[in-house]
Amino acid sequence: MTATPCSGFLSSKPLSGSSYLIVYEVGVIVAAGVFLNYVGLTLSHHLESILFLDMTGTALAAILLGPWLGAIVALLSNSVVNWLLLPEAGAEVTIFPWSLVNMAGGLFWGMLARQPRFLKYVRTSKSSGAAHAWFLLSFGVAGAVVMSIPGTLVQSALHERAILALNPDVAEALSIRISQWEAAVRVFLDTALGLHWSQNISWYVVNWFQTCVRYIPDKTMSAAIALVILKYGYPLYERELVHGGPEGERPGDERILPLVLGLLYAPSYASLISQEDYAGHLYWPLWSIPWLFILYGYFRIRYFGSTDEALRVARMQRAERYARALKPVGKEPSYEFCRRLTLATLIASLLFALCLPVLLMDFYQVTFKFFCVVYGFLLVVHLVRVAIAQNISVARTD
Question: Helix and strand tally (H, E) in the chain?
């Protein structure tokens, strides 16, 4: 493809010819990413684990769809799904600020997944131990280092300190050691650099280190789990979106994607700069940083990205290959049976929901949770069905 400037603010038909891909590619991957993120966060809360695993789906979407859709999945998970489903009071105070960390992870993993070394790594069926170590170090350790920077800044805005351990004895021992580190950093900055505001810098340095140490296992496990799910569950997506199909060229980014990310971030941004809980009058530059990346991404794709025609042709070819590969699976009797059963289940759930106002007082909350459970299970069934269909299709092709 030739990388020539694109005309106009938006493509005249930015989604032209891609309705099939929205349903069978982007929709499936985004839904899987959001679901994996929520499952990871729920398990972390119930098990009181130091691992959040709430960015596993973000890593999956970023590897397959690129940095912008990775960031979109991160924002949907953090600022929409978690905000709606997290049962704690005042959940927005503990949710919205962390969208910066989640978006940073989606952008970082998405850009890293497009590097030649990663493509070589996933293409080799028998990668060496050194190759696997490179993946874990780059996606896990390096990702933790990058994401701990906005994480530390968010802690500063929320007046929080990083926490490393759940055991009280270990936490107390670490607190003493960290105080010593903080004092040592402050003395160094005072004597070597002569900075009178070294207390603030030492706080950032020590908390960044603590945050980084806690993020390393979390981000490493998230990236590894995402790659395992990709390899075992969605081989067609890997072949088309990672390896680039028969042409060996990965799909380019649509320049509408940074704008979609900005549209999704706008409500959170308005809340972050307007509420006193977030100290918007002091930390508005922090909450505004995503806009710089959004603007940069849009203009970079506009002037240096693939042409509209090249993107349209690539979408059509990819949709045809998906349809051709999955057509035999769609003819199976079990496929039609499950499709009809799913439709009947949806109709039954709607009929039941109509009876809830008569049976219950708290109608809206109960109905919302009811549909979340029903559609959540149906989503899991759909994602599993897609994974099975892709594996069957690839097995028949091979």
Answer: 18, 0
pLDDT tens-digit series, residues 193-207:
554 444 566 677 778
**3 state DSSP class of 352:** helix
Q: Is residue 310 located within the same domain as residue 287?
A: yes
By residue range, what is the domain housing residue 380?
Answer: 331-398
Q: Are the C-beta atoms of residues 208 and 161 closer than 8 Å to each other?
A: no
The position carrying tokens 């028949």 is 396
The model carries a pTM of: 0.87
**What gap in Å lies between CA 189 and CA 203, rounded to an integer?**
12
For residue range 33-64, list pLDDT tens digits in order: 999 999 998 888 888 787 889 999 999 999 99
Reduced to 3 states (helix: H, G, I; strand: E, B; else coil), residue 159 is coil
Both 322 and 335 in one domain: the answer is no
The span from the CA of 234 to the CA of 215, in Å, is: 27
Q: Are 217 and 50 in contact (CB under 8 A)?
A: yes
* Residues 28 and 145 occupy one common structural domain: yes
Which residue stretches of 113-167 are H helix? Answer: 116-123, 129-135, 143-158
Q: What are the CA-CA distances from residue 300 to residues 5, 6, 111 (Å)? A: 9, 11, 14
Q: Show the tokens assigned to 3.
A: 């990388």
Structure tokens at 78: 């953090």
- The angle formed by the CA atoms of residues 27, 32 and 33, to the nearest 5 degrees, is 100
